[in-house]
Amino acid sequence: DPVPPLQVIRPEPCGVCGSRIRFGKTAIKCCQCQLLLHTKCRGQCPSPCAPRPRHHAWPREGVLADFAPSTPPLVPILVVQCVTEVETRGLTETGLYRVPGTEQLVREWKRRLLRAGGALPALSSVTDIHVVCGGPKVREGEGTPFSLTLLPGTATDIPDDAASDTALRHVVSKLPPANRDTLAFLMLHLLRVSRSPDCKMDVLNLSRVFGPTLVGHSSANPTPLTIMEDTPRQCKVVARLLSLPPSFWRGFVGTEQENLVPT
Fold first, then answer.
1. pLDDT in tens, the chain (263 residues)
2. CA-based diameter of the chain, in Å?
3. Which of 9, 94, 103, 198 holds its CA 20 to 30 A away from the CA of 191?
């Protein structure tokens, strides 16, 4: 929702390409999300428009709710747009989420994201879809403002499958709303990835990739030994989550909002 072009009175980065908009140059700013961009970059403006976080700019870190929209489902636009781009271009890619993107490109992408103050650069310009996959795999301490550790480390190990499912449903339902909705959105996405014959990423492979990302540790300050011991349990929890029926997850994000970006 752009306003008429304006003149830049202090150099600021373009929210789409990341290059600096120099003093006196013409730029466009969105009325809703305050995204500032070159006039030439208007055609690459991210869609849908993402209202600004509750802070004037993204803090260096915060809880997931600080970056979620104000109305349900409470899924940060970063996660929504990354998932949408992956589903648009990546469901024919072998090893999706397992094959890493070029480390330098992933670092540059995260740097541009932070420099843009919370406005996601246009993902269509990122040629390598494995770089985009780095968004939903954000972990604590990786230079992004929030961690996607959505489940507490106490999400338990119960041998009986039925009892385990009941316990996990209870844990999920008691999560903070932004964590719960984001987890549901990701689970539905990962189920679609697991069903793609081209990706060759079954539930076991995906649980190995996302276990450390989505499930916390058994202690607040884990030692290297604890981290090593927690890894198999984290993977098992994600595998159990992916075994829950899609209808359970749709109950949080809504049947019509399984993909939050309109086609």
1. 445 666 555 667 777 776 777 766 778 777 666 677 788 887 776 555 555 444 444 444 556 777 778 888 888 877 888 888 899 999 999 999 998 777 777 777 766 665 655 556 677 777 888 888 877 776 554 544 455 677 765 555 666 777 778 888 888 898 889 889 999 999 999 999 999 999 999 999 999 999 888 887 777 777 888 888 888 888 888 998 999 999 999 999 975 444 444 33
2. 67
3. 103
For 255, the token pair is: 């049947």
Q: How many residues does the chain have?
A: 263
